[in-house]
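TASK: fixed-backbone design
INPUT:
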């Protein structure tokens, strides 16, 4: 029985409060194949519980350059990231309108930024896809260590979806 099946069986887990409370679920992604494996579960959970799904992507630190060039780079990186998040959200089939966040590392670990945003949003659940191995050959900001840090330090439940879960993203209808 999957985690979502257990939630459905009990309808409102104790940490979600009453059914009249609007829930916020946070889906963190770096747009890599492993992190996107968490998207179908995030969509299903948000729709199942009537939660608002918030999409979050942490933008890597900017290259060193002049202040003006850095400002231009940040604006461009933020716009590109928000557009990618919007594409994911538009194809998600969510019952409620999602929120989109593109945040910069700001000298912190990616896990710290994810936790900071989760706290700011008062997220009831954090959803993250992860690699089944630390040796994937893919550069990822949401790697196993980042996910582990989030799981260990989060003030709310964290749902992790392993990329070897067998879910075929090519057949997803979102």
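OUTPUT:
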């Amino acid at each position: 029985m999957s985690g979502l099946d257990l939630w459905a069986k009990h309808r409102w887990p104790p940490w979600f409060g009453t059914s009249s409370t609007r829930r916020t679920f946070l889906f963190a992604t770096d747009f890599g194949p492993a992190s996107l494996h968490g998207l179908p579960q995030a969509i299903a959970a948000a729709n199942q519980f009537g939660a608002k799904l918030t999409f979050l992507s942490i933008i890597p630190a900017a290259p060193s350059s002049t202040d003006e060039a850095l400002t231009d780079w940040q604006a461009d990186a933020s716009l590109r990231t928000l557009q990618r998040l919007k594409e994911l959200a538009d194809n998600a089939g969510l019952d409620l309108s999602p929120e989109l966040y593109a945040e910069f590392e700001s000298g912190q670990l990616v896990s710290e930024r994810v936790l900071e945003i989760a706290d700011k949003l008062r997220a009831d659940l954090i959803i993250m896809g992860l690699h089944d191995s630390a040796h994937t050959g893919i550069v990822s900001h949401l790697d196993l260590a980042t996910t582990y840090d989030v799981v260990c330090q989060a003030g709310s439940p964290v749902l992790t979806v392993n990329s070897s879960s067998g879910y075929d993203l090519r057949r997803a209808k979102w």
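COMMENT: The chain is about 40% helix and 15% strand.
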